[in-house]
Design brief:
The chain is α+β, with helices and mostly antiparallel strands. It has twelve helices and 16 strands. The protein has a five-stranded antiparallel sheet, with helices on both faces. Strands 11-13-14-16-15 form a five-stranded mixed sheet. It has a four-stranded antiparallel sheet with strand order 2-1-4-3. A hairpin with a 2-residue loop joins strand 8 and strand 9. Helix 8 runs antiparallel to helix 9, helix 9 packs parallel to helix 12 and helix 11 runs antiparallel to helix 12.
Length: 457
């Protein structure tokens, strides 16, 4: 913007800090006095709004410029002639004062040590960390405060720094607190001008936590070793029991069948009935052994997670059940596209048990209604049926091995299926629960992760 020539010189040479603004309060021009007083540059101001911390007032010299612009001056400015630069001594004192404040307010311990073994000066943080006043700490050799086990290596480190002049970025030792305990200190230090300058941070709690974690890890490793040993013994025991139990059961079944086949004519009707009951019980015992072995393996075997199509798996299981029980009318509905990150082998066992139970307990209905889906509100998969249901007062028994809520005369089974399902869900860090009404049906819910975020629909 052009000022009248006679005012241009006046504007720039004035000791009063002036600024010219547009109607939108955009800076058009400033004089040197304004720049000196505000410590701002022309580049920072030109074409910009005036910073909010700068207060202006209109000048009575408005006629010096052409409208639509306005001349402003700095309100209550410090005159440039008042800004006297500090002397070298004053500058030095400012630096000293700043360092003194930093020294006194530091959270870490700051110190200056002499090579005669005494501290020349320590910061007030020493009292917070070690309990001594700075005067108490400086009145004795620092070796008096060192843990005996740390004395030699501390002196070696000090001598190394003296010889090489090289700083140390991290060195730890222990200093005795005024109450007799020891604090672990992490030091950074460097020699200069015949003195040692250092800072120390209290890392006692950190080292204690590390020691506790190390102890816990050691205990955990020991327990894992013991658990591996117990699992090995259990596997050996299970195998041995399986063999030892199967042998006499095979013998019982073998001789019972021989009696039926070769000596049926010598048996009375009641005798043949007894023999059939022996065979039935032996077969059930064999099934129980198989179920127990399966339950044991589920707990021990390693898991291999992958994205698993549960909808497809449920459909395949339902098709197999239709072939096994062609006389049963079943409407089976499955929500498509249910995929979760899980062990496919274990998930198949889980769904075989849950869908198989739904098939079995709804078998006395004219038409079985069975559904596999995902409940968005509960964030859980479910298997629902319209079968026998159960009394919720007996819920505590539901997932316990060999506990049955229905008699074997009503529905066949070993009482291990839901216990197996429960263990599978536990291994996936999920939850399983059920809701039922006696005579109306049951719904079994399960999750595979605590937050169900891995589920895709």
């Amino acid at each position: 913007m052009d000022l009248k020539p006679d005012y241009q010189l006046l504007f720039q040479s004035s000791l009063v800090p002036y600024v010219i603004l547009s109607k939108d309060h955009i800076v058009i021009d400033v004089n040197d006095a304004f720049l000196k007083t505000t410590s701002l540059s022309r580049k920072q101001l030109m074409g910009q709004l005036v910073p909010p911390h700068i207060h202006l007032e209109k000048s009575e010299r408005a006629g010096a410029i052409d409208l639509p612009y306005q001349l402003y001056r700095l309100k209550n400015p410090i005159h440039p002639t008042q800004l006297v630069p500090p002397s070298p001594d004053q500058e030095l004192q400012i630096v000293v004062d700043e360092l003194e404040k930093l020294f006194s307010l530091s959270i870490d311990m700051l110190c200056i040590a002499k090579f005669d073994g005494y501290f020349k000066r320590v910061s007030p943080a020493i009292q917070r960390v070690l309990g001594y006043t700075p005067e108490e700490f400086c009145s004795r050799p620092y070796t008096d405060f060192l843990h005996p086990d740390d004395l030699n290596r501390t002196l070696e480190e000090v001598n190394r720094q003296l010889k090489t002049g090289q700083p140390v970025l991290q060195f730890e030792n222990r200093y005795r607190h005024k109450d007799g305990s020891y604090k672990a200190l992490s030091w950074t230090s460097a020699p200069a001008n015949g003195l040692m300058f250092g800072s120390a941070r209290d890392v006692t709690e950190e080292r204690q936590r590390e020691a506790e974690i190390k102890l816990l890890n050691s205990s955990l490793e020991q327990k894992n070793s013991e658990l591996a040993l117990v699992n090995g013994e259990l596997e050996s025991f299970t195998s041995s029991v399986s063999h030892d139990l199967r042998a006499p059961i095979r013998t019982i079944l073998g001789f019972s069948n021989i009696l039926l086949e070769d000596y049926r004519n010598l048996l009375h009707g009641q005798g043949e009935n007894y023999l059939n009951r022996i065979i039935t019980v032996a077969q059930k015992m064999s099934e129980l052994i198989d179920e127990l072995l399966s339950l044991s393996k589920i707990t021990r075997q390693e898991m291999h997670r992958s994205d698993t199509d549960l909808s497809l798996m449920a459909t395949n299981i339902a098709n197999e059940l239709r072939e096994a029980y062609p006389q049963q009318k079943v409407n089976f509905h499955v929500t498509p596209g249910l995929i979760s990150n899980a062990d496919p082998r274990l998930m198949n066992i889980l769904l075989v048990n849950l869908i198989g139970n739904a098939w079995k307990y709804s078998s006395k209905k004219a038409v079985s209604q069975i559904e596999f889906g995902f409940d968005l509100a509960k964030k859980a998969f479910f298997v629902k049926d319209n079968g026998a249901g159960f009394d919720m007062n007996h819920y505590a028994k539901l997932f316990t091995a060999f506990e049955r809520l229905h008699t074997t005369k009503e529905f066949e089974g070993t009482g291990v299926g839901l216990a197996t399902a429960h263990r599978i869900i536990q291994r996936h860090h999920g939850n399983i629960w059920a809701e039922g009404i006696e005579g109306e049906g049951a719904t079994f819910f399960f999750t595979l992760e605590s937050d169900s975020e891995t589920t895709k629909i």
